[in-house]
Amino acid sequence: MVLTCAFSRVLRGFFAAGLSTLFAGVVFGALNPAAQDDSSCVSCHRTRGLIAQFASSEKLPLTVNASQLKASVHGGQTCYACHPGVSKFPHPKNAARDYREFQVDNSKQCETCHADQAKQELDSNHARALAAGNRNAAICTDCHGNHSVSKAASPRYKISTRCGRCHGAIYAQYISSAHGRALLEVDNPDVPVCTDCHEAHKQADPTTQSFRLNSPKLCARCHANAKLMRKYNITADVFNTYVADFHGLTVTLFDKKHPGQKINTAVCTDCHGIHDIQKVTDANSSVIKQNLLNTCRKCHPEATLNFPDSWVGHFPPTRDRYPLVYWVNVFYRYLIPITIGGMIVFVLIDAGGRIIRRFRKGRA
Amino acid sequence: MRAVESSAASVRDARNWKDEGMSEEGTAMRAVIPIPRRFTVPQRIEHGILAISFTVLGLTGLIQKYGLNPFSERLISLLGGIQMTRVIHRTAAIVFTLLTVYHVIVLAYKFFVRRIQMTMMPCLKDVTDGIHCIGHSLFLCKEPPQMPRYNFAEKLEYWALIWGGLIMVATGFMLWNPLIATQFLPGQFIPAAKAAHGGEAVLAVLAIIVWHFYNVHVKMFNTSMFTGKMTPHQMEEEHGAEWSLVAAGGVSAVPERATVRRRQIIFVPAAIIFAALGAGGIYWGATAETTAISTLPSPASRPQIYSPAVSLPQESAESATVAAPLIPHLIAGQEQCLSCHGKSGLKTIPSDHQGRPVESCRICHKPGPIPKPGPSATPKEKGKSSGPKAVPHATTGPYKNCILCHGLGKLKPFPENHVNTNVEHCTVCHK
Questions:
Q1: Domain check: are B264 and B344 in the same one?
Q2: Do B202 and A336 touch (CB under 8 A)?
Q3: Cβ contact (<8 Å) for B191 and A44?
Q4: What is the pLDDT at residue B297?
Q5: B290 has a chain A CB within 8 A of its CB
Q6: Residue among B82, B195, B310 minimizing CB distance to A165
Q7: Which residues of chain B make contact with A10, given a CB cutoff of 8 A?
Q8: pLDDT tens-digit readout, A97-143
Q9: Which terminal residue of chain A, N or C, has fewer Cβ atoms less than 10 Å from its own Cβ?
Q10: B373 lies in a domain?
Q11: How far apart are CA B229 and CA A277, in angstroms?
Q12: Residues B64 and B133 placed together within one structural domain of the fold
């Protein structure tokens, strides 16, 4: 006879408060969990369809895929390493009122082994959002999985797809960007995945001014690396030329002096885009010639047709590119030493003559 | 300036005091020949304002040009940051440009109303004076050059300032108002203006340090910018020709009052219009463009940060069921399920249930309907097993402890699978 296991009803009977979850895990007369193996837990928890119900009437599946667990990076761990509270049977009450609370409580256990990462995570957006009451904020297991934890970066695109589970709109932009396409189409090892810019555990808030001001340095980590850029035929001067110009100098100095202050001066992403960044030769690129005016107008709404040309790009001016700038530079490169050199020669001759005359007069 | 009744030649002789030191004769002659005034009070004030604005412009400009130099960084933060540095630079630029307008008006007054000699205009003699000067320093010529009211060094500096000032004002305007500038000019004029502004700044500052400092502060300390006049010694050396001219009475004639009045009637309104235009132009140039200062990239364009692409792993538990046989007997008094259902009980648990604690049985196995005993449930139908046999004797007194007689090798052995059964449970089945 096949009957439904109205487990939830039983639970409600067990805990009058109706606020508890029971694990149907097993330890037969266990006193020292560390000495136990998992076979007793698995003997119950492999049962398909085993569930518990929270006070919120959400259901918690209790079935564990033992072979998946064994294949994970935690394959050598016992159940009690992560679930120390359930070493006895009947399992003690679980105070979680709903599924998410249960997940949040459980993920705290990760800290016992991964203290460094947990400490970094305390500074993260996710931890801040969680502390502020946003229970959707990611916890360890949301990104790493629970029983099927594998190495984070194998394959590398797994990182970005994992972030994309919650950040779907941004992920959609990312996968159509130059970086995202290279990652997902050819598993390019050089393009940034989410955590390369945002960090895995200690992500700073990307909406702050200090993040904005510091962002050119983020881009420069790869784009100022000549060896890396040569592979893609991209100039590695982008950061230097940016810093040498009005926007870059302002941003750099602000970053050093007033990292939190609000300024509107453009950083890399204001022109090139953030998650939707395209190759500068792509027709959809925000900085390709035909789109550049619109990009300038984001900050300079009165900009006219000639205005975008006032940005020389990330290349030093040459005879062919920006010849006027080139020749002005050449002019002063010669005018300054000739003029000042001539003055110095005159001054030295004049001063020499005076000193000799005074010396002679003194002796006379 | 009063006329002096002596020939230039005699003055020249008289001025030879300098070679004999401060002789009686020299002192006397100094009193006789007046030293022409070089700078009026307004000119000295003009120079002071120019010096201050130039210094501020040079300093706040060069630290922007070389912004990442450690010294620049320190000075920028000392001034209150890059924005404040720019505000200071632009304020000084306004002062400098206003001064330019003022200077043009004063020059125009001198040219159109007073009609004095344009002594600052360069001429061929300046070139020969310069060569002469070098020759004298190299002991090729015995006598130093006799130089006019403004000598070649001063003219060089003045015209360099005019040239540089015009470039700085024009390129500075373009850098301050790139949007307005590019309405009329190609875009690359802006970076070209930046290159010129920076290059010219370096040139101007170095020129002041080398040329001005040497000629006015190192070679001699020329105090005429404070006192209005040079010392006789300096006058002879720097402006010998002018002094001779003054001594000879060759000073520009002061025009008559009435003539000046008549010219002023035209000049003053023109000057007011020019001044108003200049001031208005400066005000416009300083305030016309604010777009880059007031706009901030809109945060509205940011995509939704939390937008789950897939729902979090909430397994739909509704359909999750465990198929477990119901318990077909009373539970009271028979809570130790494993007594009967253990490894070798009457109705053994499946192998995958091995190891589960007795407390867990009833999580899945619920009490079900109890089949009524009766002929319908005759064991015969199910083969050789005939079900629990009835107890053919009393169960009290000496018969209470079943295992006294029943057991393996005893009076009345029970089946092998009864070995683990607790004695208290015998009567559960055997009535």
A1: no
A2: yes
A3: no
A4: 59
A5: no
A6: B310
A7: 362-363
A8: 888 999 888 888 899 999 998 888 888 889 999 999 988 888 998 88
A9: C
A10: no
A11: 68
A12: yes
Q: What is the rounded distance in angstroms from the CA atom of residue A359 to the CA atom of residue A193?
A: 76
pLDDT of residue B131: 92
Q: Assess whether B270 and B157 both reside in one domain.
A: yes
Tokens of A287: 């900085």
Do B139 and A324 make contact, defined as CB atoms within 8 angstroms?
no
One domain, residues B215 and B103:
yes
CB of B233 within 8 Å of a chain A CB? The answer is no
User: Is it the case that residue A27 has pLDDT exceeding 50?
Assistant: no
B282 touches chain A (CB under 8 A): no
Count other Cβ atoms within 10 Å, centred on residue A58.
Answer: 18
**Nearest chain B alpha carbon to A11:** B363
Contact A353 B315 (CB under 8 A): no
Residues B162 and B224 in one domain: yes
Quick one: pLDDT at residue A229?
Answer: 93
The answer to the question of residue B364 being in a domain is no
User: Higher pLDDT residue, B349 or B252?
Assistant: B349
Buried b (16+ CB within 10 A) or exposed e, B125-160: bbeebbebbbbbbeeeeeebbbbbbbbbbbbbbeeb
Q: Report yes or no on B51 lying in a domain.
A: yes
Confidence of residue A66 (pLDDT cuts 50, 70, 90): confident
Within-domain flag for B379? no
Q: What is the pLDDT of residues A146-199, one digit of tens each?
A: 888 888 777 888 888 888 888 888 998 898 899 999 988 888 889 999 999 998
Q: What are phi and psi of A284, to 5 degrees?
A: -95, 0
Q: Are residues B416 and B275 in the same domain?
A: no
Domain tally, chain B = 2
| CB-nearest partner of B323 from A3, A51, A306 | A3
Q: Which of A199, A222, A301 is CA-nearest to residue A268?
A: A222
Q: B341 and B250, same structural domain?
A: no
pTM, two decimal places: 0.74
